[in-house]
Each structure stands twice: as structure tokens, then as C-alpha cells.
Design a protein that fits this description.
heterodimer, A: mainly beta, four-stranded antiparallel β-sheet, 0% helix, B: mainly beta, six-stranded mixed β-sheet, 12 strands, 54% strand
Chain lengths: 114, 114
């Protein structure tokens, strides 16, 4: 029943490690996104994909690499984790690109880097 | 580039009363959409209401309505008959351009008192 799911929901890891967060949507949407919500709750787009094609790539360290194996999945891999990467990462999807499109968010993954 | 400003960090309202959350934005685009999203303690992001810039009529969804002042670039959210379940962070957001880039404000924490 879950529309947009993320795994894991919580991730605790040490500095320097590499980790991945997975996202899946069962809504049949074409467009998927990654957002980062920092400790002050500020939400900022990182990446978006449309039909597996990278559309938005904000100013994000190249340690972050998104991968979309198909339209229903968008994963986020993070290399050499740093303390400042601690945040909640949200995956979202929308039916297609477009101004009016509602974005459906996943439950978020709280990443804590120690 | 667009910016979204929510200057009130938090507000409190008595149950059953009405509260208005403020938001201003700035964009050079002629067509855009504005959104209010709700983030309760569960962390899930939920769309509350949306408004197309070309529509003069203010959007309404049950107890939620907006006051859209295009010239002033203001987009406030009015919650009528506040309920305890309305306690959450509320984010104002602006979507412009073909890439569906959603820009969020910093959010406001709303507490509904019993």
C-alpha cells in the first residue's frame, strides 16, 4: 500500500563509510526526487530524475551519487560520509515534470554520522 | 532563482480557533505554482493545498484556505477550526520552470493547544 518507500528509515554510521539509501514508488510516476532536510528543518532539493534521466543536480558534493535503475526506483549512494551529512533524506515522486504536479514524499531516512 | 520566506518561526493557537501562517516569495517567472506542505511529528510530508499563479480565486480545501496576493507576492495559509491534529511544521513552497524545482521556505511550527 505504501506509495513511496525508503530503506532504511534510520541509518547510523561512522565518518568515512559509504552508505546507500533506497527509494521505491509504486504510483507509476515518471519523476523522482531526493531532498535533504537539515537539523534546522530546512528542506532543499538535491536531485531529480525523469524517466531515468537526470534533470536537476543541485550544488551537491560529488560524494553523493544518485542512480535510477528504472522509473520506480531512485537510490542515493554517499561516499566518504562526513559529520555534515547528518540529516533526514526524503525521496519524492510526481506523475511527471510540471508546475502543478504534487510531489508525494517518502517517510524519510534519518542519517546520523558519528 | 526563486526564494520563499517564512518569517514566523512558530505560532500557537487554541483548538477550534483560526490561525493564519504567512509566506512571501520572489520569482521572475510568470507562471508558477505555490504549495503548502504539512510535516507532523511523524516526519511525513503531506500536501495541504496548492495555488496556480494565474488563478485569481483563492484555493480552498475544507478547513484550509489561502490568501494569494500576487502583486505583493504573498501566499498565506488560513486554518479554520483548528484541531489538535493540525500540530505540525508547515512549509510554503514555490514550483517554477519545466524542471519542477520545488523551493521551500524555512517552515513554521504550529502548536494547537487543547
Amino acid at each position: 500500500d505504501t506509495a513511496v518507500s525508503q530503506t532504511p528509515k534510520y541509518l547510523v554510521t561512522q565518518m568515512g563509510n559509504d552508505k546507500s539509501i533506497k527509494c521505491e514508488q509504486n504510483l507509476g510516476h515518471d519523476t523522482m526526487y531526493w531532498y535533504k532536510q537539515d537539523s534546522k528543518k530546512f528542506l532543499k532539493i538535491m536531485f531529480s530524475y525523469n524517466n531515468k534521466e537526470l534533470i536537476i543536480n543541485e550544488t551537491v558534493p560529488n560524494r553523493f551519487s544518485p542512480k535510477s535503475p528504472d522509473k520506480a526506483h531512485l537510490n542515493l549512494h554517499i561516499n566518504s560520509l562526513e559529520l555534515g551529512d547528518s540529516a533526514v533524506y526524503f525521496c519524492a515522486s510526481s506523475q511527471a515534470l510540471g508546475l502543478a504536479r504534487e510531489q508525494y514524499f517518502g517517510p524519510g531516512t534519518r542519517l546520523t554520522v558519528t | 532563482a526563486q526564494t520563499v520566506t517564512q518569517s514566523q518561526p512558530e505560532m500557537s493557537v487554541q483548538e477550534a480557533e483560526t490561525v493564519t501562517l504567512s509566506c512571501t516569495y520572489d520569482t521572475s517567472e510568470n507562471n508558477y505554482y505555490l504549495f503548502w506542505y504539512k510535516q507532523p511529528p511523524s516526519r511525513q510530508m503531506i500536501l495541504v493545498i496548492r495555488q496556480e499563479a494565474y488563478k485569481q480565486q483563492n484555493a480552498t480545501e475544507n478547513r484550509f484556505s489561502v490568501n494569494f496576493q500576487k502583486a505583493a507576492k504573498s501566499f498565506s495559509l488560513k486554518i479554520s477550526d483548528s484541531q489538535l491534529g493540525d500540530t505540525a511544521m508547515y512549509f510554503c513552497a514555490c514550483n517554477t520552470g519545466a524542471n519542477s524545482k520545488l523551493t521551500f521556505g524555512k517552515g513554521i511550527t504550529l502548536s494547537v493547544r487543547p
